[in-house]
Amino acid sequence: MLGRLKSGVRSVRDRLPSRPPRPRFTVDDPPATSQPESGSTPTETETEALPTYSARPIQTGFMVTIGVGIALALYWVLSNNWQLVVWILAALFITLGLDPVVRKIVHWGAPRSVGVLIAVVLLLAVFALLMWILIPTVVTQTADFIQQIPQLVTDFLESDIFQRLDDQFDLRSTAFTELNRFVSNTDNVTRLAGGLFGVGTAIINTGFSVLIVIVLTLYFLVSLPSIKFWAHRLVPYSRRRRTEELSEKITRSVGNYVIGQTVVATLNGIVAFTAVSIAGLPFSALLATFAGFMAFIPLVGAVIGGTVITLLALLTGWQSALIFAIIYFIYLQVEAYLVSPRVMRRAVSIPSSVAVIAVIAGGSLLGVLGALMAIPIAAAIMTLIKEVLIPRQDAH
Fold first, then answer.
1. 139/40 Cα distance (integer angstroms)
2. Are residues 286 and 340 in the same domain?
3. Residue 275 resides in a domain
């Protein structure tokens, strides 16, 4: 009886609809993504989505801190020893200029030490000969020029040009008023005496600087091959040969530039001496020396030197100034289109706009020395861009 009842209940339960399962809170599994096959690289989206972290954050932060500290220490050392940096740069510049001469002597079969000795002796001989010829003349003509300043000023004040300007702007009375005011002030006299003392100090410092640069040049010229050797050892071996080729190309171009600029400046001084003599101007040796030294400054030095000499020639007469200006500035055109291209074609080749910007930037940073070094440095940077950066970009 009981068995029949259980079977009846079971049959009725089986006929009833089944109850749905009770809802439970579950965490859905992330959608399955296809794993990249072995040897395949992740896509750009997958790479950007994955954050990158340093495996050694403490070591990385420590190394960054050390790098910043070294940079600050170098800045402090350079800022407090800037004069030494200028001496080293000047000595390196002269060394690279004398290196082609030493190479030529070594090519003839002499040891490098003998080549360095001959180059230094030749340089000192040329310098001594120049001083022996110029110093007596320059000293004499400078003394004569100082003695003739009052007479030159008087002649200028009595010239027709000044008379017209004086009638129109009353320059004479204004100048004498300002001069009396300057002399009557004792502070101005004290400043003038301090300025004269400063000139003497500057001359002594300049002589000391020249001596230091000569000594550094001698040491750099002797040890230049070893300096290059150890500098190349700092480059990885796979790139060492290419680095040696580029450094050799750059140093040769700097040396050829220094020699070429010396030739151009010497020729400029000779032409200036000829023009001053033809124009009948006094102090021909002094003015020609000034023009020759100014010609070392690229692009603008010769123009500035010629302009200054022309203005000084106006004290003698406008006819003499006109004769000098015509001769000298005609030569500048010949120099720009014939002399400089032939002399400099083996040294540097950079666009004119880059040369102008480089000279301005170099002059702003280091004065005359910066202007002298600007063009070869710009040429070296252009060489690195052409030989390293552009091929690397083309490879990508």
1. 83
2. yes
3. yes
Q: Please, what's the b/e burial string for 73-111 (b: 16 or more CB within 10 A of its CB; e: otherwise)?
A: eeeeeeeeeeeeebbebbbbbbbbbbbbbbeebeeeeee
How many domains does one find in the chain? Answer: 2
Q: 286 near 140, Cβ under 8 Å?
A: no
Domain of residue 323 covers: 245-396
φ, ψ for residue 299, nearest 5 deg: 70, -55
Mean pLDDT estimate for the chain: 79
pTM: 0.66
Residue 227 lies in a domain: yes
Q: Which residues of 216-234 are buried (b: 16+ CB within 10 A; e: fewer)?
A: bbbebbbebeeeeeeeeee
Where among 172, 203, 234 does a domain terminate?
234
Question: Considering the domain boundaries, does residue 14 fall inside one?
Answer: no
- Kindly give, in sequence order, each residue whose CB lies less than 8 Å from that of residue 287, ignoring residues fewer than 6 positions away: 272, 273, 276, 281, 309, 312
Mean pLDDT of 313-322: 85
Whether 16 is covered by a domain: the verdict is: no
Q: Would you state the structure tokens that stand for residue 46, as one six-digit string?
A: 């997958």
